[in-house]
Design brief:
Elements lengths: L3 H9 L10 H10 L1 E5 L4 E3 L7 E7 L2 E5 L2 E6 L4 E2 L13 E4 L3 E7 H10 L1 H21 L3
Antiparallel strand pairs: 1-8, 2-7, 3-6, 3-8, 4-5, 4-7
Helix pairs in contact: 1-2
Length: 142
């Protein structure tokens, strides 16, 4: 069953990368988000591979593994792969559906095309990313 535009917007506004975005920005992002139904066992993200898409979990659960070790189980409303929208850094974990899942997916290509059409969105996303990276550095015990 399709979410519709308002359902997509409700999910996307919870994503830290989009927290600086206006409702209009979120509407534009929602337009490029596709809803997919995937079977249990489907690998969404493979550790070490180049990222090309970002996922928001609508229903079901995924398992996150780093170097073969389970580090998390994520469910509805959570997201994975957002850094793939902005960088070409290899994936840091493997994410596999442990149940049948329903997801929103945004490809890096569609997102970059949207950013090129809406230059002011670049700044909002960059600010959110900088705040997130800054928070990670502040919390890093190194």
């Amino acid at each position: 069953m399709g979410l519709g535009a308002s359902g997509k917007i409700d999910l996307l506004k919870r994503v830290p990368l989009f927290e600086q975005c206006s409702k209009k920005d979120l509407q534009n992002i929602a337009q490029i988000a596709d809803q997919l139904d995937l079977r249990a066992g489907k690998v969404l993200i493979e550790e070490g591979a180049r990222g090309r898409e970002f996922f928001v979990i609508i229903e079901g659960e995924v398992e996150v593994r780093r170097k073969g070790r389970k580090v998390a189980t994520l469910g509805p409303g959570t997201f994975v792969g957002e850094m793939a929208l902005l960088s070409k850094v290899p994936r840091t974990a493997t994410v596999t559906a442990v149940t049948d899942i329903d997801v929103l997916v945004i490809t890096d290509r569609a997102f970059l095309e949207l950013l090129n059409r809406m230059p002011d969105l670049w700044l909002k996303v960059a600010r959110a990313l900088a705040e997130r990276v800054g928070a990670d550095e502040t919390n890093d015990p190194k």
